[in-house]
Design goal:
40% of the residues lie in helices and 0% in strands.
Length: 90
């Protein structure tokens, strides 16, 4: 799981992550000296999303809107308060 932002946010300092396995390739790098202070200043909460949750969201978007979305976009909603409810798509 690529959760270095979550771990760093909880710990209060950068917790590096080496080679996480995730479908969200944009999350395979660790936070840095430029990104971590921005998170500390502007983010109230970080939640993690399972690999299965990412895949379900991608499938839902394809089935309903016929768009393919980069997996990391599922992990970073643009609003602070987002509630996603997934219907059984099988």
């Amino acid at each position: 799981m690529a959760d270095d932002a979550f771990q760093s946010f909880k710990a209060g300092h950068i917790v590096p992550q080496l080679a996480p396995k995730t479908i969200a390739d944009g999350l395979r790098t660790s936070l840095g000296d430029l990104t971590y202070p921005l998170i500390k200043k502007h983010v109230d909460e970080i939640v993690t999303v399972s690999e299965e949750g990412i895949i379900k969201a991608m499938r839902l978007l394809w089935q309903t809107l016929k768009i393919v979305i980069e997996p990391v976009r599922i992990s970073f909603p643009h609003t602070k308060h987002v509630e996603l409810t997934f219907m059984n798509t099988e």
